[in-house]
């Protein structure tokens, strides 16, 4: 137990099925907040190894890769992932995994379209705002040096 004022420590033994919480983690309470200390070799669940430097996705590159993989496998027609025909395939059947890859291609397309829409929306917002006037309004409001005049008819 940690002897610092306001800090209580306990060793947490959590079943291995919960991600990010393994044996050897130390939990302590400090100021009413729970803090988890990780032993050597562990990392928090929200830190991913090899996180990409960019979140930009390319559907076309994904499509070309999946198309080549399906052609190379030469397995014939693929059932759509999750359908009864797909569920009936054995777990060792390569068509089952290829069908999942083809379905994943659709997700990449949705992500790319969403990213393009966000970019367009950001450009539209930037074009609609007069940043200089907005900055002056914010600056003047914060310093209380500016009092807007009431317009009379």
- Cα separation of the termini: 74 Å
Query: Structural class, from secondary structure content?
Result: mainly alpha
The main sheet comes to: 3 strands, antiparallel
What is the beta-strand fraction? 5-15%
Contiguous low-pLDDT stretches (5 residues minimum) are: 1-25
List the helices and strands and how they pair.
Blueprint: E1 7-11, E2 26-30, E3 33-37, H1 59-73, H2 84-88, H3 94-128, H4 131-143
Antiparallel strand pairs: 1-2, 2-3
Helix pairs in contact: 1-3
Short structural summary:
The protein has about 150 residues and is mostly helical. About 45% of the residues lie in helices and about 10% in strands. The chain has a 3-stranded antiparallel β-sheet, with no helix packed on it.
Properties at a glance:
153 residues; mainly alpha; three-stranded antiparallel β-sheet; 4 helices; rod-shaped
Can you put this structure into words, describing what you see?
This protein is 44% helix and 10% strand. It has 153 residues and is mainly α. Among the domains are: 7-37, no CATH class; 59-128. Strands 1-2-3 form a 3-stranded antiparallel β-sheet, with no helix packed on it. Strand 2 and strand 3 form a beta hairpin. The radius of gyration is 28 Å and the shape is rod-shaped. Residues 1-25 have low confidence and may be disordered.
